[in-house]
Amino acid sequence: MPNITIKNYIEYMKNDKGLSSNTLEAYIRDLEQFMDYLNSNNLNNVKDVNKTIIIAYLMYLQKNGRATSTISRNLSSIRCYYQYLLNKNLITEDPTLNLQLPKRERKLPCVLTKEEVDILLSQPEPINFKGARDRAMLELLYATGIRVSEIVALNLDNLDLDLGYLYLGDVDFDGRVIPVGKIALNYINIYIEDYREKVIKDKTEMALFLNYSGNRLTRQGFWKIVKEYTKKCSIDKKITPHTLRHSFAVHLLQNGADIKVVQEMLGHSDISTTQMYLFATDDKKLKDVYKKAHPRA
């Protein structure tokens, strides 16, 4: 491949594409590595490169441990180069045409076992305001799978303690109705009846979970609380408030819950987001059931 062609291409990338220096360096580095691969396979003419060769190169990158995101960027770099050659009439066909970028791997969420959930939730003791509030929050988070932003935004009237339901948003439109289990309801009752009123300064405050000042607990405050108890329970996993949401979903599915019901409770607009929980577990039976039942599995 003539050096003048590559030099002209680099100049074109610098002057006409408006790329940042880091992106430009990555594109050039990707192209140089591709050229080295071609030369090592005695392919010295761009006209000899076809789809099969490019696919072989992408597989070569994969075998050498390159991340999916890196392979995708390499294909983008190669495609940009061949489109340049095509526009300059230096080739008659673009070998990257219709080649699909590899799908980025979706990182599976961290999920606790049921035993680990028990250990984490048992850390706060409901013998004072902080212990009762924290136990109620953690129990409610695991019982409903709601988001951190939703739990700190809860008001007293979001909960029906008699019927055992949590109401989020406008249930007549895009809101959610989520059942709350007896254990979580018990700890919420202890918190509300025995401790919540003791810190309230403004009787009109409707927030369910309060800080020591009697104001609504913040998202940052909740994160600190979870961090505090994860240190105490010594579970060798990276636990965040979202971990209990993930665990809620996986444990429901493991126990036979319909995925559409889990989707509705989590508030996912797209069921593909919920489906990732099917593979966030080592439960082979669950995966086999999914593969047999889903028409596109």
UniProtKB/TrEMBL annotation:
Keywords from the named record: Cell cycle, Cell division, Chromosome partition, Cytoplasm, DNA integration, DNA recombination, DNA-binding
Gene designation per UniProt: xerC
Occurrences of domain Tyr recombinase (ranges): 107-291
Stated name of the protein: Tyrosine recombinase XerC
Pfam families linked: Phage_int_SAM_1 (PF02899), Phage_integrase (PF00589)
NCBIfam families per record: PRK00283.1 (NF001399), recomb_XerD (TIGR02225)
Single annotated GO MF: tyrosine-based site-specific recombinase activity
Family: Belongs to the 'phage' integrase family. XerD subfamily.
PANTHER family per UniProt: PHAGE INTEGRASE-RELATED, TYROSINE RECOMBINASE XERC
Keyword DNA-binding: yes
All residue ranges annotated as the Core-binding (CB) domain in the record: 1-86
The species this protein was found in: Keratinibaculum paraultunense
